[in-house]
Each structure stands twice: as C-alpha cells, then as structure tokens.
Amino acid sequence: MKTKNFLFLLVFVLCSIAATAQVQFDAKVSKKRLGINERLRIDFEMNQDGDNFRPPSFDGFRVVGGPNQSISNSWINGKRSFSKTYSYFLAPQTRGKVTIAQATIEIEGETYKTLPVEVEVTAAVDVPKDGNNADFVASENVHLVAEVSNANPYLNEALTVTYKLYVSHDVSITSQWREIDTPKYADFWSQNIDNQNNFKVYEGKYNGEDYRYVVLRTTVLYPQKTGELEIEPLTLDIPIDVQGNRRDIFGRRVMERVNKTISAGKRTINVKPLPLEGKPDGFNGAVGDFAFDVTTNKTKLNANESMQLDVKVSGKGNLKLFTAPTIKLPNTLEVYEPEHNENVNTTVAGMQGSITDSYTIVPQFKGTYPVNPITFSFFDPSIEKYKTITSKEFTIEVENGPISAATANNNSNDTKKQVVLSKDNFKYLKLDANLEPIAQEPFFKSALFWSLLGGPFLLIPLFILAGKKRKQRLNDVEGNKLRRANKLAKKYLSEAKRNISNPVAFYESMERALHNYLKAKLNIETSEMEKSHISRLLSEGNVEATTVENFIELLKSCEYARYASSSTTSVQQDYNKASEVISTIDKQLQ
C-alpha cells in the first residue's frame, strides 16, 4: 500500500514539474548595480517561439542599442532545445533605484509576462584604464567639445557655440552618428549653421596631442536675459572602430566596433546687463555696430502724388531683435503704415545686413513741409559705449495743389482768402449711382412663410410615434436581452468570422473567443479552463444541460481541428452553432 502511495505521489510531482516547465519567459540583466556612465544589457529569453513581443518602456533609461534578436535551436540525444532572445543596451538617465517594467509575448495564444527587474544606478564610476579594453580606448580617443566665443557677453550681444568632434589617429569613425540630445537654448535667440552635408576634416591639437576634427555645427546665440544662463549639452551616439585583441590570418589586429555616448557638457554663460550710464532716452535695445540713414525717392511733387521715405538701419548686430525709429510728419501729409523689409544674413560672426521701413506719403495741399531729424541710438559692445546717429533735415516741396487754411493764414497780411479746391479732389466720387428698383415678392404671408410656420406642428405626431416605439422597445425585456446576447456573440466571434475561409485559423480564433467569453461571464482564468469545471459553473448558473453540452462540443471541435482538417461546410456550421450557443448562454446565465 505504501508503495502505491509513493508511486502516485512521484507521478503527481513529475506531472506538476512538466506542466510548470512548458513555457519560460524571463528578463535577465548584465548587472544589478552600475554607474550612471556605464551601460546595461537586458535579455528577454524564452524557451518557445512566440509572437507580438512588446518590450517595456524603459523609463529612466535611454535605448542606445537593440533590439538584437538571437535564436538557438539544437537537438541533443533526440531532445530538442530551443531558445530565443531579444537584447537591448541601455544607458541610465538618472541615479537611484530604477525598475524595468514587464515585457509581454504571446505563445500559442496565451500572453506571458516577465517579472519587473530593479536596478540601482550609482554615481559615475572610474572606467578601467586598460589599454586592451575597447570601451576605454574609444572613450580616450574620441571627444566632443563645445567652444564658446564669448562666455561673458552683454545682453543681446552675439556669441557663437562651435561643436567639434575630435578623433585621434588610433581609431576611426566609418558610420554615421546619431543625435540623442539636442540643445534647446532657453533664454537665447538662436540659429544653427549646420555642416551635416559638407563635413571637412581638419588637423588640430587636443590636450597637446595630434587629432583630427570636424566642425559639426555652429550656433549663433543672442542672450535675452542677464545673469548666469546655461547652454544644454549636445549628446551623440557614435559608432567607433577600435583595434581589438583578435588577429586575422596575417597577424593583423581585427577592428572592433564600439558604440559610445559622448556629450559636450553644459556651458555657463554670464550675461552682463547694458550699462545705465550714458543710456539715451530713445534707446530701443539695438546692440552692435550700425549705420543709420533716412532717404526719399523725391522731395518735389504735386498734391495727391505719392513719394517714398525709407528709414534704414544697416550693419552688424541684433538686427531682427529691435525696431527702427518712427518718423513724425505734419498732419497735412497723409502717411501710410510702413512696409518692413529685412535683408539679414546670419553667419558665424552673427547677424549682418539691413532692415528698412518704407513709408508711402501723399501730400494733400500745396506748401513746404520740413522733415525734422530722426535719432537712432545703439550700444556698441566693442567700445562698451552708447552711440547716437542723427539723420539730416530736409524739406518736401509740394508745388501744385490746393492751399490749406493754415497756409493761407500764414501767407496773407491779415486778409482772409477763400481756399480754392481743385475739382480733382472729388474725381473718385461717383455722383450718378444708377440705382434700379428690385422687384421681389414680400416674405410675409408667402408660401415659404406659411411652410416654415406650420412645418414644426406637422412633425409633432412623428415625434410622439417615435417616442412610443422607443418606450415599447425599452419595456421589451426579453427582446433587449436577446439583442444584447446576439451583439455579444458577434463581438467575440468577429475574429473567427474573418478567418472562416481558413479552417485552422478559424478554430484557433473561435477557441480564443470562447475562452474570452468564459473569462468575461464566469470570471475565471486560463488555468481553470477544464471542461468539467466549465460544465459545473454553467450548470450552477441555471444554463440548460443541452446548451452546456453544445458549448463543450464546440470546445472539442476546436481541439480536434488542430489534428484533423475540416471542410468549409463544417466551419460554417460550427460558426452558426457558436453564435447560437453564446446567445443562449447569455440569456439563461444568472
């Protein structure tokens, strides 16, 4: 008797181990503790092939490599061994304990998840200074530098940031790098001058040693605030070819590729405010070295003719960040809104060119109109002083036209003269309107008026009839239950219906639909999907025995279909039977 009990227990334990060892899906990391300047490798391994692999979001990390996929399939002593791995390389973004969330995959219609993995990220650690270590060699021979032309500028004074990539002669870069972080330049007006399509290699020095370098980008900045302002770093992911420890058949060392994340580091700019001493009253924020001029296309014209007056600021400085001075003219000159034109180029030295405000002026009366000088003030950072430029005074001569009352009073010797107006002043007014009467039927008491008035009353019986129909439909409890059941059946069997022409895919989809339906209605898990257990739960829910039998037969049909082919006719019959059974269970289940 004891022997039988022992054998029974042994068989039970072996079956349990076999059941639990069918599918394995694990997440493995290369290390549980690493510095913020190190990298982490994580492998998602499974012992059976699956579909729809979904990695976690990797919050707190930046993916710098992967996914790399590897498959191992071997036979040892007639036993098959299978392994599939998805690998990622991660760079930590923050210190502290970071949790890598779960990854998911579908294997034979079931969804499996890995356990969350907790990793501790510490402060930067010392890189092993091993001349044979490829990572160390790459980090010691490639450098990204941000060169700032002026770390202590005035407000609105131009400065440039030049990003240079230095590469020693011991390593090489043969593949294109990738930008990971791009500076946003908060509190600066900025414009990039990219060299991405036309890199030129220069020879230079880095820490006293010979290096090659390329200029990646030059950015022109104009600070808009005073005080200490930070320039965010530019970060690149660069593939670097390093001589490895392996050698080819000729004894030459084989190149090994290493991906490194290189940052230029933050730079701090101390922006000085513009001095208050000597600041002119009309100063409007212009910083640089400028010329100022006011010109006209003519100074003699007749009344109602137009002329153009240009206010132009040219030179080098923050031309796009201020407005030119405005002009003040007598009220008898009609002045239109100026047209603003910019002819500005942004180079490594900053903005250069000119801005122009063009005014259109139309005099109304005959006379002489002086244009007073206009002043323009700016701050020159090269001499750290303000400068003011004043335009020349000139007059506008209106030779022919009507005489205004003010001009007549000034030119007479206490003798009032009547203002003579030219008939051309009214030549744009149309005196004959050529109006014609419009023959139109009045709207009041028209056919359209009575139809719009009585139409809503005719719709009232239709609304009453529709309301009664809706009320009857809501009171039909059995009918509503039947409609809900049919809708639920169609919902779960929609995927199976799409695969009705493919019997194998159809039965797989229908089996998933039946399982999902049971999960929703009976609140059970996949591990509880035993036919006897399902029959007992449905019977306890007052489902008729014939309906339960039909449902179990459908599950059996899905299982048999894995091993035997089915015709299209039987597939259609099973689909109709599944729709009917789900609808019936939904009505009877309590």
Structure description:
- With 590 residues, this protein is α+β, with helices and mostly antiparallel strands.
- It folds into four domains: 21-122, Sandwich (Immunoglobulin-like), CATH 2.60.40.740; 134-271; 289-398, Immunoglobulin-like; 477-588, Four Helix Bundle (Hemerythrin (Met), subunit A) (Up-down Bundle).
- It has helices at 2-20, 134-141, 405-411, 447-475, 477-498, 503-522, 531-540, 545-560, 568-588, and strands spanning 25-29, 33-35, 40-46, 51-54, 61-76, 79-92, 96-100, 104-107, 110-113, 117-122, 142-148, 159-167, 178-181, 188-194, 202-206, 209-223, 227-231, 235-247, 253-263, 267-271, 288-296, 300-301, 307-317, 333-335, 339-347, 350-363, 367-371, 375-380, 385-390, 394-398.
- Strands 11, 12, 14, 15 and 16 form a five-stranded antiparallel sheet that branches. Strands 21, 23, 24, 25 and 26 form a five-stranded antiparallel sheet that branches.
- The longest helix has 29 residues, at 447-475.
- The chain starts with a helix and ends with a helix.
- Mean pLDDT is 81; it is low at 16-20 and 412-417.
* Helix vs. strand class: alpha+beta
Described by the principal axes of the CA atoms, the overall outline is flat
Number of domains: 4
Q: What is the CA–CA distance across the termini?
A: 46 Å
- Rg is 43 Å
Which blocks of ≥5 consecutive residues have pLDDT under 50? 16-20, 412-417
> How many extended strands?
30
Described by strand count, sense and barrel closure, the largest sheet is: 5 strands, antiparallel
Q: In what range is the share of β-strand residues?
A: 35-45%
> Roughly what percent helix?
25-40%
Count up the helices. Answer: 9
Overall average residue pLDDT: 81
Multimer state = single chain
